[in-house]
Amino acid sequence: MTLNYHQQKTEAKTEKILQGALSEFLNHGYLGTTMDKIAQTAGVSKQTLYSHFGDKEKLFKALIYEVTTKKFQLVWSKPLQGKPEIVLKELADRIINEVNDPQYLDFVHIIVTSAKIYPELGELFLENVAKPAMNILTKYLDDCSDLSLTDSEAIAHIFVNSLIHHILTQETLQGKKVIPISVDRIVDQLIIMIK
Asked: Distance from CA of residue 81 to its chain's centroid?
């Protein structure tokens, strides 16, 4: 189905606003970003900005959905099928490669630091990323005839959270200097523990 000219123009403007908003939030954080500055950066009027999103919170929520949905698809859209040692290695590679993106990590940092004041932002992130990811991996672990796990859900959390922790400590917290360890060692041991 092709979009008419008006729909295409609206979608292009929405994308322009989201890109401008992302830039502003990354540079100034949630609290330090204003709708005035977003409008200026996006090259739209404040009226256009408000008519598209209503307020800063709704705009940030739309951005959470946009950014996390794209990243989620890159990691989780490939069906998990096959031998666990292959599937889990490929999944780990996708998680490490996609999550270890400085812009994405900075965006997640904004969500985390804003969640104390605006808990719904954290909840939205978890609903769009963590929960469906854990459900997909848990289902694979439950259905995999090569495994006999007593708590697939806990194993899914351990697997994903260990990789996220590795990225955060090694990349964000200077772990490469303080507690260096290769991701391959982490992934190999996670797979051994699961098997």
From this structure: 23
Residue 30: CB atoms within 10 A of its CB come to 18
Q: Encode pLDDT of 9-33 as tens digits.
A: 777 888 999 999 999 999 999 999 9
pLDDT digits (tens, 9 = 90+) for 50-103: 999 999 999 999 999 899 888 999 999 999 999 999 999 999 999 999 999 999
Task: Spell out the domains of the chain, with CATH numbers in brackets.
Answer: 1-54 (1.10.10.60), 61-194 (1.10.357)
The answer to whether the beta carbons of residues 65 and 120 sit under 8 Å apart is no
